[in-house]
Write a structure and sequence with these properties.
Layout (H helix, E strand, L loop, with lengths): L5 E6 L4 H10 L4 E6 L3 H14 L4 E4 L3 H7 L2 E4 L6 H8 L7 E4 L19 H8 L4 E4 L13 E2 L2 E2 L1 E6 L2 H13 L3 E6 L4 H18 L13
Parallel strand pairs: 1-2, 1-4, 2-3, 4-5, 5-6, 9-10
Antiparallel strand pairs: 6-9, 7-8
Bound molecules: NADP nicotinamide-adenine-dinucleotide phosphate (NAP).
Length: 221
């Protein structure tokens, strides 16, 4: 476990995933910088977190660039359609930093991915942030899973993919702190599989009414 406190910027912290991630990391050895286009959402989120986690170290921020400048790890908790513009805004302060792609680029009918088959949301983000270390994580866990990562008596797996070994280790620790079992699945191209897996889980969730509380578990010896 890292002894130094890491600073994490969550961009889109007022949304379903951003707020779930922030709450799940509030007891960890992290300083959390919360940013969202809707600053009002951040006030109520901060209040809830401070009430339930008195030792939480967090700060609502009014600027994505400043948040990312201060951060060691940046989490893009926004729709994939917003990521290119966001990447352009923060590129100069994200050099050599770990940037987590949680996006599932699904269409409005949950029928297809909007990315080409020979790439993924994570690889596109890496193209837009060529000097950052993009890691895929948290895309295979629904927002509701963060409150209850143990489903049917089993701790949900959370798959991670990326090209930088040290960055993968940092993100594995983060995923573990959030309550999931981290599974490093491969390099960043494996994001194509992870994003497709989650499209299928969304389709099954709708079909079988899993109430958006479902996850993945590899059973093994
Ligand atoms: N929901 C899930 O269970 C789940 C699971 C795995 C992965 N994901 C992925 O997680 C990401 C977020 O999904 P979500 O369900 O949390 O969506 P959401 O509830 O709509 O949250 C997204 C948040 O990001 C904000 N935002 C958008 N553009 C921004 C920008 N440029 N700068 C700062 N904030 C911005 C939005 O504000 P406005 O509302 O004002 O636009 C909103 O508060 C998506 O990529 C999704 O594919 C979601």
């Amino acid at each position: 476990m890292s002894i130094t406190k890491q600073t994490i910027a969550i961009i889109g912290a007022g949304g379903s995933m951003g707020s779930a991630i922030a709450k799940s990391l509030a007891d960890g050895n992290y300083r959390l910088l919360l940013f969202d286009t809707d600053l009002e959402k951040l006030g109520s989120l901060s209040e809830i977190i401070q009430r339930n986690h008195s030792a939480a170290d967090l700060e609502p921020m009014s600027c994505s660039h400043e948040s990312c400048w201060e951060a060691d790890i940046i989490i893009f908790a926004v729709p994939h359609s917003a990521e290119k513009a966001l990447a352009k805004q923060i590129r100069d302060v994200a050099t050599q930093k770990v940037v987590i792609s949680i996006a599932n680029p699904v269409d409005v009918d949950f029928e297809n991915l909007t990315t080409r088959p020979d790439t993924s949301a994570a690889e596109e983000l890496q193209e837009w942030l060529p000097h950052s270390k993009v890691i895929k994580a948290f895309n295979t866990t629904f927002a509701a899973d963060f409150e209850q990562p143990v489903i049917d008596g089993k701790q949900t797996d959370s798959f991670i993919a990326g090209n930088d070994k040290a960055a993968l280790r940092m993100v594995s620790e983060l995923v573990e702190t959030a309550g999931f079992n981290p599974v490093i699945a491969g390099d960043l191209t494996v994001s194509r599989t992870l994003e497709r897996m989650q499209l299928m889980l969304m389709q099954l969730t709708i079909k079988n009414d899993y109430e958006w509380h479902a996850g993945w578990k590899i059973l093994h010896n």
